[in-house]
## 1
Amino acid sequence: MNINATLFAQIIVFFGLVWFTMKFVWPPIAKALDERAAKIAEGLAAAERGKSDFEQAEKKVAELLAEGRNQVSEMVANAEKRAAKIVEEAKEQATVEAVRITAQAKADAQQEMNRAREVLREQVAALAVKGAESILRSEVDTSKHAQLLSALKQEL
């Protein structure tokens, strides 16, 4: 056997194997590799989309939280204003009621004082009439008049 013929046969077999591999084996392997690369690229793109969606969701949550905090602080401020207004109205009503009660008490005291004056006037008038009557019944005497007047003073 000749080394050239063996080498030539080996070259033919080698090229036949290369041709067979390139024709039948290599396309499915390349196709599988391309599909795998496409799946990896798709997974990476989905991961990026998910990351950006997550960031957007985080931003939206932060905005909603800020808005909620603003609404809560506004509600608290409104409640405090309303409470202050209610307290102020209660103070005003209490002041009005105190003024009304004071005026009523003054009017009642004035009426009582007027009644007491009337009673006192009636008593003084009765005493004056009684004193005049006793003066007119007794004789006109200066010492007796002085005694009667002093007795009348003591009764007043």
## 2
Amino acid sequence: MKLNTLKPAEGSTHSRRRIGRGPGSGLGGTSTRGHKGAKARSGYKRKIGFEGGQMPLQRRVPKSGFKNINHKEYFVVNLSTLQKLAEEKNLTKIGIAELVSAGFTNGKELVKVLGNGELKAKLEVEANAFSKTADEAIKAVGGNTTII
């Protein structure tokens, strides 16, 4: 062991400068806070969006649009998809459980059936919502629709 190879123990030294510990430290006096103003004083908390008294950006920019809190987001299934599913799995009744097992939805989403495509099979369909054309097309083939 030599004096020139000695090092302090791991974690025993502090990398940051200690401020506000007198003029001898070189960081006494204002303690890196500068002179006067809100930031120099104790208890200062930065307000989100505060721009030094200037009108903040979120108040300067014009507002537009509307977010409807009652809007429902549906997972959409078309009649062509139902027809394909009925042919592949030989089904007469299609509900949420069948759509989950086929990998279309996770079961937590609301399902709406739309009238895109052609339906030939007589099906009993359960869903959260139906478009008017889908409802008519399912009933025209002799099927039945049930809203859950």
## 3
Amino acid sequence: MHLSPAHHAHPRTPGDEQFALAAELLSLLGDRTRLALLHALTGGEADVTTLTEACGAARPAVSQHLARLRLAGLVNTRKEGRRVIYSLGDGHLRRLVDEALSVADHRLSDRPVHD
């Protein structure tokens, strides 16, 4: 696997607290449904119904994953009547999701083709 140099490397050596928070963040992203939800939110705000359709999971599971992401501060919510509208917490998260999916694309495209 070929790794390209980081364009925006962390400016200083991270401490224990940064490593712990980054590991927590990456563990939240390590779930396929949560990653799919975050990816869906890179396109803009959405409600639970829209997100359920986008990620293909059962509505109760989507609601639980969204609650976990909200508690972790990765998604924001606002009310629109009775509906709860979700959005990404910040642009850094959008880039992280995009980068994770780009790495996956590269790994898939680097696989040898078998007949």
## 4
Amino acid sequence: MNTDPMQRAIALARTALGSTSPNPAVGAVVVRDGSIIGAGYTRPPGQAHAEIGALQQARGAARGAALYCTLEPCCHFGRTPPCTDAIIAAGIGRVVYAVTDPNPRVAGGGAAALQAAGISVERQPNPAADELYEAFARHVTTGLPFVVAKFAMSLDGNIATRIGDSQWITGPLARARVQQMRKELDGIMVGIGTALADDPQLTARDGNGNPLPPGLQPVRVVLDSAARLPSAARMLREPGRTIIATGHSIAPARIAALEDAGATVRAFPGSDNRVNLTELLAYLGSQGIVSLLVEGGGGVLGALLDAGLIDKVYAFIGAMLIGGAGARSPIEGSGATTMADAWRLQRTAMEPIGPDWLITGYPTPGYPTQGGG
């Protein structure tokens, strides 16, 4: 076989990221005599799951064949019938999956149902598949979105010059990677400072720079405690949805102006009239936002880090030196008092992207335990 079936299933699942929430993005292939005879991936909510698409493509040849899928097949009714019923009816002889369903209400149920029907079932762990479902696992167990902090900084740790110029720290290949992230995640959040300074569009775009259709756009979220975003802001003219998270005591006329411009305005009052981040994240999770990309600025990222609400970090490092005592840091907030209190990234990876670098990791408070990875 030219393509490893599980790797092919993972690649299919990645094509569905950003279009399936709150359902997980799954890829599946049907294999007979070493050849892939059917392939599918999760369609938008209410449409066919990956296994159904693969079985439909394989048709009658699926009987006695093997099904490889990135996630344990579902055994419960949602908007669509259980995939396990379709697998059994198709006569599949063997099922290989990479990740056990993290939903505590159904974990292991799909595999058990298939085994009860006489189908051979095998779990084949795969780190790339695990990463596919880290956001889904967070959401299905807590109701909160998986929060991904993204920033670009120079080698000397700055995100802008002392006069605020920030375009561009990284090159076009790194910026293209950010567009892919925006496509794959459900929401994108910035603070009002970034919104006012840059007037960003906050859209996912294709390789030609054109915005993707509304259904593929991340939900835009602006932390704007005083509702200062202009109703003429560019993001409000872009396809997709914009949520403005405010504090309290916002003038009704100001709310009406933003809503007339197409925004959804919601109040999450916290201390000092700041936005209550925990309540905001709970609301976003209730809206089916499983993953949230936070692009800054430093105050927003600092507040999230201080509250322990960042699940993953994407740090782009531009091959440049900015200097200047007044240059800005990517993460502000209160920060750690001692180095022992600092957040350490675990399971780190470093990847060159053109002349720049991308460091990925998962923040954990304090020093790692002895022997930790």
